[in-house]
Specification:
It is a single chain. The protein is of the alpha/beta class. It has eight helices and ten strands. Helix 7 runs parallel beside helix 8. Bound molecules: zinc ion (2 copies). One zinc ion binds at residues 91, 94, 96, 123-124, 126-127.
């Protein structure tokens, strides 16, 4: 679409657009609901051949919704970078490559088929390489995808804590005050006992323990960034 700057687009290719109520886009939206294993930036996809959906997948290895504290989000990696930090966000887990893999596993030849992608507005270089090699014809996204699926709008919907209370176990001092501030900033309440999540200062840094779990969901290393990183962890729990 004219005027849109894609972070990556191979020579001679273009993104194609359909309305969000296009039947194949509706199928892709359903795949996003059911299959995407990435809770923070879920993407669904279907492969269409001769007018029929022949394969469907979600990013995050099609594992379905799960709790995942992504190091890329904790460390605020710029878009398109930091995939090596995270097993779930590795390019081979992107929806485009997952649907190709699914098709191959089902002995469906992807050559000449189209992909309908719901949840994103561009495709990364490894995915384009895989799609071109597999002979994919066109990739369709929804007409307003670059706005609807901007990082800001998607994260506003997905990076909301699913719990209410936090205990901060660090002793009194500036760190405690700063943590209490960011905890309240994202709509959580600081409590002394029986918290949904405990933030505990350990040997290796600040550990975030969801109630009842046997290990910390994430350990933020110390340093000046720590408070902001703890906030980034809590938003994903
Ligand atoms: Zn991740
Ligand atoms: Zn990709």
């Amino acid at each position: 679409m004219p005027g849109i700057e894609y972070p990556y687009l191979p020579q001679g290719r273009e993104m194609k657009y359909v309305a969000s109520d296009h039947p194949f886009m509706v199928e892709a939206a359903l795949a996003r609901e059911e299959l995407a294993g990435d809770p923070s930036f879920p993407v669904g996809i279907v492969m269409v051949k001769d007018g029929v959906v022949v394969a469907r997948a979600g990013n995050g290895f099609s594992r379905g919704r799960q709790v995942h504290v992504c190091p890329r989000l904790v460390l605020e990696s710029p878009t398109g970078t930091g995939y090596e930090l995270c097993g779930l966000h590795d390019a081979s887990g992107h929806a485009e490559q997952q649907v190709l893999e699914g098709a191959r596993a089902a002995v469906i030849e992807p050559r000449g088929s189209d992909l309908y992608l719901f949840g994103h507005w561009w495709c990364c270089e490894p995915c384009w390489d895989a799609m071109i090699e597999a002979g994919i014809r066109d990739v369709y996204v929804v007409a307003d995808a670059h706005e609807r699926f901007s990082r800001e709008l998607v994260y506003a919907q997905t990076l909301k804590p699913s719990f209410k209370t936090v205990a901060i176990e660090v002793g009194d001092g500036i760190l405690r005050d700063e943590l209490a501030e960011v905890v309240e900033e994202i709509g959580l309440r600081v409590v002394e006992n029986d918290a949904d999540v405990r933030c505990v200062m350990g040997d290796r840094g600040m550990e975030c323990w969801p109630r009842g779990s046997k290990s910390a969901a994430y350990t933020v290393q110390g340093g000046e960034w720590m408070v902001r990183q703890v906030r980034n962890v809590l938003r994903q729990l």
